[in-house]
Design goal:
By secondary structure, this protein is mostly helical. 72% of the residues lie in helices and 0% in strands. The chain starts with a helix and ends in a 10-residue tail after the last helix.
């Protein structure tokens, strides 16, 4: 049985391995997308043995040709100190280059650099700009961060109604992440977004708790001690 499984795995991986060989040939001929794919394959070690040195070699080749995905990965390498010595300024440089080409993940990472002042001077207005761009590109974390900026009035005029709207959208767009239910539950329960509604807040917190959010579970215990009837509120 073990040998059968190994044989099946071989035939499953064979097409991917063949594709990688083709990418290597194209990468050597200067194709930026192929260079990115080869670099990523070496970096992850999925269809070829992991080799960080080779990964960086091909990613840098691709990045030099303005391949945004390669620039983003190199930015992460510099930011996390993986394969490269940690360097926030270099991370910022690669994130910005990829972000200017419209790559959403890089836009989100660039927004965080401006927000925290890592590799560049802190600038909440620029952070807001890039959070908005990344949010438009479909990055849930960016939409959440955008909501927080509206909630706190960071980089934009405070607008708690808009914050609440963005948080509500997230509970529909990212139902797999109970943290968003927990956060909007807190907004309603404590009135931190301008509209206080304890029952609605409790329902969202319960929903998050049921789906494994530890923060929600801890808060729900406190709520039920203070309000025994809270446990009678129906889940979504």
């Amino acid at each position: 049985m073990k040998h059968v499984l190994l044989l099946c795995s071989f035939f499953i991986l064979l097409p991917a391995f063949s594709a990688t060989k083709n990418w290597i040939s194209e990468a050597r001929n200067g194709d930026a997308q192929a260079q990115y794919r080869v670099g990523k394959s070496y970096f992850v070690g999925d269809t070829i043995a992991q080799d960080i040195e080779q990964a960086l070699f091909w990613l840098e080749k691709a990045a030099a040709q303005k391949e945004a995905r390669a620039q983003y990965i190199l930015g992460l390498c510099y930011y996390k100190g993986e394969g490269k010595e940690k360097n926030d300024s270099m991370a910022y440089r690669f994130f910005k280059s990829a972000a200017l080409q419209g790559y959403p993940q890089a836009q989100y990472s660039l927004a965080l650099r401006y927000l925290k002042g890592e590799g560049i001077k802190k600038d909440t207005k620029r952070a807001f700009h890039w959070f908005r761009k990344a949010s438009e590109g479909g990055i849930d974390q960016a939409r959440f961060s955008l909501g927080v900026r509206f909630q706190k009035g960071e980089g934009i005029e405070q607008n708690k109604e808009m914050a609440l709207r963005l948080f509500r959208e997230l509970t529909l767009m990212a139902p797999h992440d109970p943290f968003y239910d927990y956060y909007i539950g807190c907004c309603y329960y404590f009135g931190t977004c301008g509209l206080k509604d304890i029952n609605t807040g409790t329902r969202f917190i319960q929903k998050a708790a049921v789906h494994g959010c530890k923060e929600a579970q801890t808060l729900l215990v406190k709520i039920q001690k203070q309000q025994p009837k809270a446990s009678q509120v129906h889940y979504f």
